[in-house]
Design brief:
Layout: H1 3-11, E1 16-18, H2 55-67, E2 71-75, H3 78-90, E3 96-100, H4 105-113, E4 117-121, H5 137-146, E5 150-156, E6 163-164, H6 167-176, E7 181-184, E8 208-211, H7 213-216, E9 224-228, H8 235-245, H9 252-287, E10 294-295, E11 306-307, E12 311-315, H10 323-332, E13 336-338, E14 340-341, E15 345-349, H11 356-370, H12 422-427, E16 430-434, E17 447-449, E18 454-457, H13 465-476, E19 481-482, E20 491-495
Parallel strand pairs: 1-13, 3-4, 3-5, 5-7, 7-8
Antiparallel strand pairs: 2-9, 6-11, 8-9, 10-12, 12-15, 14-15, 16-20, 17-18, 17-19
Length: 496
């Protein structure tokens, strides 16, 4: 069975998508004719994305008005290309940047390509759900004071799990020091269209904002937007790098999907988001009835700056079930395909295209599974699993973090000791060794869980015994460890 046949079969097998893309394979949003009939190249009357003057220029202007941006450009290679272009446009080779450690691998690729010097901003980690919290604005200001040669601040908000940072405060701090702020808001393209959803980062003052339309809105996979605001970023530079990183043969099908999405938001956005919000409220209210499984409730949030209600984080921490087992049960028994699985939780993504029946199927599945699991210990906000290493147990040879950052992390975050830049590490002679023998060696490869694609280890960083133990635990629990050339992740390349 080839790919096309597999896709058709899957679409008919009754699986419900609690994952991206945001159109949710809901055919009521499909108003396009046979794609072969409208698949064209840059012919007369249809403009050129890399030199837009007419129909595409007008479409991007509409998108800018809808989101409140100074300039907006179409991305048909996903948010990845927006991150590469945005970072490249704001920096020169060898520049220093402040970057959230929980950034997507595309950010690290931009750092590598431009040989940048990263200064990491560490999020806290929530003990109850085991997810990254938002970023501390005061920490960012401290780092700006200590790194006055920084040329750009790069953060991710919301996180994959929907946790939001105070972008307004961070933006104000950045501008006080004359440094542009780039926000990877890939998972927040739906922000700002309803009063009970967060404001988007554009309205919060960010200079560059990247949105993945396909993640949370009805648009084809790979479709995204990059927005530029203010005077700290040269939009012509952004366009120049987009012409380098984006395909020279952009898909008119994808670009028309972006325009269809923008039109839908313009004409029916308020109605659709009002109905969507009511569905989410109802779902979370019902989840309060679970006794062992926990669902992170954005409407009862007391400890995060903000939470995107579209993301459903379902935790089995403290029970006799793992995140992987919950994921498998939902998929195999209830035919619900979740977006992400981690050690102790699974993540579902929703959108305006989800159906009442889809929410109901997830509700019934969770209540049935909740009746079967057993509490092993009570997971709390400041809690880690029994016998986990605490922050004050970290030995001096484990890591050498900046002291200003220690108050803003927990024991679950392994602080790296950077020995080489990623560019240097990747281009030096290397050897391949067993992961288990890597303690004290410098990595020449990325290591990350996918999804979400956030590096746990970056080339140039020192491997230590805590990292090895963490990777072994991930693998033992059935999580997908990627980034190494060895697809089984038993071996890793290290600098000779």
């Amino acid at each position: 069975m080839n790919l096309y046949e597999s896709l058709v079969k899957y679409s008919m097998d009754g699986y419900y998508p609690m994952h991206m893309p945001g159109h949710k394979r809901n055919t009521m949003w499909n108003h396009m004719v046979n794609p072969y009939g409208i698949d064209i190249t840059e012919i007369e009357g249809f403009d050129n994305l890399h030199h837009a003057e007419s129909i595409l220029y007008e479409g991007m202007e509409r998108a800018a008005r809808l989101y409140g941006a100074g300039h907006t450009a179409y991305l048909i290679n996903g948010s990845t290309v927006g991150l590469l272009a945005g970072i490249s446009a704001c920096t020169n080779k060898g520049d220093k940047v402040l970057v959230a450690r929980n950034s997507h691998k595309a950010v690290y690729n931009a750092i590598y390509l431009n040989e940048l010097k990263p200064v990491y901003i560490y999020p806290q980690k929530d003990g109850e759900f085991g997810i990254n919290c938002g970023l501390n604005p005061s920490l960012i200001e401290d780092l700006l004071i200590k790194n006055q040669d920084a040329k750009l601040i790069i953060i991710t908000s919301p996180t994959y799990e929907g946790i939001i940072s105070d972008v307004s405060a961070i933006s104000a701090i950045a501008h006080r020091y004359g440094v542009p702020l780039l926000v990877d808001e890939a998972h927040g393209a739906h922000f700002g269209f309803h009063k009970d959803f967060p404001r988007n980062a554009i309205k919060c003052g960010a200079d560059i904002v990247i949105h993945s339309l396909h993640k949370t809105l009805p648009s084809f996979t790979q479709t995204a937007l990059i927005h530029v605001n203010g005077t700290l970023v040269n939009y012509d530079n952004v366009k120049r790098y987009l012409s380098i990183y984006q395909s020279s043969s952009p898909s008119y099908l994808l670009m028309s999907s972006i325009e269809q999405c923008i039109s839908l938001l313009e004409t029916k956005g308020e109605e659709l988001f009002d109905s969507y919000h009511k569905q989410l409220r109802s779902f979370y209210d019902k989840m309060n009835g679970l006794s062992k499984i926990k669902v992170l409730n954005p409407y009862q949030n007391t400890r995060f700056y903000g939470i995107d209600p579209s993301k459903i984080t379902i935790s089995v921490k403290g029970t006799d079930m793992t995140g992987v087992r919950l994921y498998e049960r939902l998929l195999e028994q209830y035919k619900i395909q979740m977006e992400l699985v981690s050690m102790d939780y699974v993540l579902g993504m929703t959108s305006i295209c989800d159906t009442k029946e889809g929410f109901q199927r997830l509700e019934e599945a969770l209540f049935a599974i909740d009746n079967e699991v057993t509490i092993v210990y009570e997971a709390k906000q400041d809690d880690t699993k029994p016998n986990d290493t605490k922050q004050n147990d970290i030995k001096p040879d484990d890591t050498k973090p900046d002291a200003t950052q220690l108050d803003d992390i927990t024991a679950d975050f392994i602080l790296p000791e950077i020995k080489l830049s990623s560019y240097e590490a990747i281009h030096r002679p290397f050897e391949r060794i067993l992961f288990s023998e890597g303690n004290g060696r410098i990595s020449a490869e990325y290591v990350y869980l996918y999804p979400p694609g956030i590096p746990i280890l970056v080339p140039g960083e020192l491997i230590n015994h805590r990292f090895i133990a963490q990777i072994n635990e991930y693998k033992e629990n059935g999580l997908s460890v990627q980034g190494t050339e060895d697809i089984e992740a038993n071996y890793i390349k290290v600098v000779k």
